[in-house]
Amino acid sequence: MTKRKRSLSGIKPTGSPHLGNYLGMIQPAIELQEDYDAFYFVADYHALTTVKDPVKMRRLVYELTSYFLAFGLDPERAAFFRQSDIPEVTELTWVLSCVTHMGLLERAHAYKAARDRGEQKEINHGVFTYPVLMASDILIYDSDVVPVGADQIQHLEMTRDIAQKFNGGFDGKFLKLPEAKVRKDVATVPGTDGRKMSKSYDNLIEPLAAPKKLRKQVMQIETDSTPLDEPKNPDTCTVVDLYKLVADGDEVAQMEKNYRAGGYGYGHAKQELFETLESRFAPYREKYESIREDQEYLEKILARGADRVRPIVEEVMDRVRRASGIGRV
Ligand code: ADP
Ligand code: TRP
Q1: pLDDT-derived band of residue 1, with 50, 70 and 90 as boundaries?
Q2: Residue with the nearest Cα to atom 2 of ligand 2?
Q3: Count of domains in the chain?
Q4: What is residue 193's predicted lDDT score, i.e. its pLDDT?
Q5: Looking at the chain, which terminus has fewer C-beta neighbours within 10 angstroms, N or C?
Q6: Which of 49, 60, 96, 134 has most ligand 2 atoms within 8 Å of its beta carbon, as the pocket-test mutant?
């Protein structure tokens, strides 16, 4: 039997996932559990750069675990675990820090954005070193592919760069170079204002939020002011762009026809988008609600996931320690 390739990804626990998270990362990652050796984790170390409340942190970890299970992650096939259950990633972060130039980190989008917002004094070292921790997350599992949205491509390039610096510096192929796996149609899902959907922009559609809230978010999608009776252009409308990502081909063709014919308002289109989202996501919401409080079950899934990945970590760290001359032989 040929060895399966490994798919690895992580996501910060930050509450209800938005449609960009789901279509850009969660759904593609879960689908890869069919053909890949799948490792996915809750990035609580990364979340620590902003979350400073232990009760909230644990709740967010359980919530994110419940979302993945509700969306179809199969713990029999994929390993789902908590980043901090593998503390060796912080050891590897240090080792990689020693081959990472300051200039590389100064060019990171997230750090640059925080600095440009004038937050220089408040930026903690964790934010600055975030890409090294992420490189460590990926490299410590000998990952082949990393399913993510387009905004993470820079981090993947940095990861490859850092791995090459390590391999070059210590003269060997110790760390495997991973590839980003970005799905073109959902690389950048638009938010209600047409920009990239992101927690930072307050333009979210959260499909597992209560139906009333979800409907309100859909109704907030910005459109132009073409009157109801007049024909409209489906090619320049965020409602249609989003509908294309969740409806089937016939439904999209019908909506485009309605736009061109006129007598069909943006309100009608938004209602159809809402109904499509609701019928697709309501079963996931129900499943999520049924498991989110079951701490014992969720801890069991996370512990089992960590146990599954630990042998790989030991193997890779052994390579890293030998290559760099640290640790006991
Ligand atoms: P946010 O930008 O809202 O803070 P995160 O950085 O937590 O989102 O992203 C988590 C995952 O979801 C990443 O893999 C990211 O690439 C993906 N993602 C986030 N927003 C989008 C989007 N609008 N379109 C596609 N993928 C996205
Ligand atoms: N930086 C990613 C995000 O903001 C989360 C993340 C942390 C990650 N470590 C990772 C993603 C390793 C892929 C692989 O969404």
Answers
A1: low
A2: 11
A3: 2
A4: 98
A5: N
A6: 134
Residues 152 and 223 in one domain: no
pLDDT level of residue 2 (50, 70, 90 thresholds): confident
- Same-domain pairing of 158 and 226: no
**pLDDT computed for residue 329 by the predictor:** 79
Q: List the structure tokens of 33.
A: 């559990």
pTM tops 0.85: yes
CATH assignment of the domain containing 153: 3.40.50.620
Q: Which residues constitute the domain of residue 50?
A: 6-189+294-324
Express each pLDDT in 53-103 by its tens digit: 999 999 999 999 999 999 999 999 999 999 999 999 999 999 999 999 999
Ligand 2 in reach of 18 Cβ (< 6 A) = no
Report the DSSP beta bridge partners of residue 82. Answer: 42
* Ligand lying closest to the C-alpha of residue 113: 1
How far is it, in rounded angstroms, from Cα 304 to Cα 327? 27
77 and 156 in a single domain? The answer is yes
Judge if the beta carbon of residue 199 lies within 6 A of ligand 1.
yes
Q: Please give the full DSSP string across 7-52, using - where no structure is assigned.
A: EEEEE---SSPPHHHIIIIIHHHHHTTTTSEEEEEE-HHHHTTT--
> Does 104 lie in the same domain as 12?
yes
Q: Which two tokens stand for residue 57?
A: 């942190």
Q: Which ligand is nearest to the CA of 191?
A: 1
- Closest ligand relative to 153 C-alpha: 1
Q: Confirm whether 247 is domain-assigned.
A: yes
Do 307 and 259 reside in the same domain of the chain? no
CATH of the domain at 208: 1.10.240.10
Q: Separation of 230 CA from ligand 2 center, angstroms?
A: 45
pLDDT digits 0-9 by tens, 156-205: 999 999 999 999 999 999 999 999 999 999 999 999 999 999 999 999 99
Ligand 1 atom with least separation from CA of 191:
23
1 in a structural domain: no
